[in-house]
Write a structure and sequence with these properties.
The chain contains 9 helices and no strands. The chain is mainly α. Helix 2 runs antiparallel to helix 8 (127-142), helix 3 crosses helix 5 (63-81) and helix 6 packs antiparallel against helix 8. The protein is globular and about 60 Å long.
């Protein structure tokens, strides 16, 4: 996808428009790293669409502090365009996402391998919260005429995939090494 195509795609879409399956698969394969990319892309859409002076990269790096705002912007967009907005509540979804990430981070620092794994899984499976949000983003995008196409695979997707698989490999190696000791 060249730059011109990407610009027109982002003008047609509201937020990152991807299949739910891509969000789930990429989140699992990247050990949760894709969630930061997902936030980055959505902040980038907001920046372009609303002509905001924000830094999408930093908003996604520090996503735990800005996820409430992102979910609220998505909720406000839904409220203005679809009747499904009554079923989407930004505050509880963002709070659960933050709590699971913090709890997972605390547990993953344990010396007990089993508790460490549970902590990592808790943090990684926060994509289930993003899946709920993505469903509403997709509903919003499907209400646009003409219906936009899904965001294509980008270099960012492949970088996340490479780094995520590297992290998985190192984690599995580390667990195997720890269990042997």
């Amino acid at each position: 996808m060249n730059l011109e195509e990407h610009s027109s795609a982002s003008k047609d879409c509201q937020f990152l428009y991807i299949p739910i399956s891509r969000l789930v698969i990429m989140s699992i394969l990247t050990g949760g790293l894709y969630q930061a990319y997902w936030m980055y892309k959505n902040w980038k859409y907001i920046k372009e669409r609303d002509k905001m002076d924000i830094k999408p990269f930093w908003l996604s790096v520090f996503g735990i502090f800005f996820i409430h705002k992102l979910f609220k912007i998505i909720q406000d967009s839904l409220t203005n365009t679809t009747f499904f907005a009554d079923y989407y509540s930004a505050e509880p979804l963002a709070t659960v996402w933050v709590v699971l990430n913090v709890l997972g981070s605390i547990l993953s620092r344990s010396n007990d391998v089993f508790i460490n794994i549970i902590g990592g899984l808790l943090s990684m499976f926060t994509f289930l919260i993003l899946e709920s949000v993505q469903k509403y983003i997709n509903i919003l995008n499907q209400s646009i005429e003409p219906k936009p196409k899904y965001h294509k695979w980008s270099i960012g997707h492949f970088v996340c995939l490479f780094l995520g698989l590297l992290i998985w490999s190192l984690s599995i190696y580390g667990i195997a090494f720890t269990v042997k000791s």
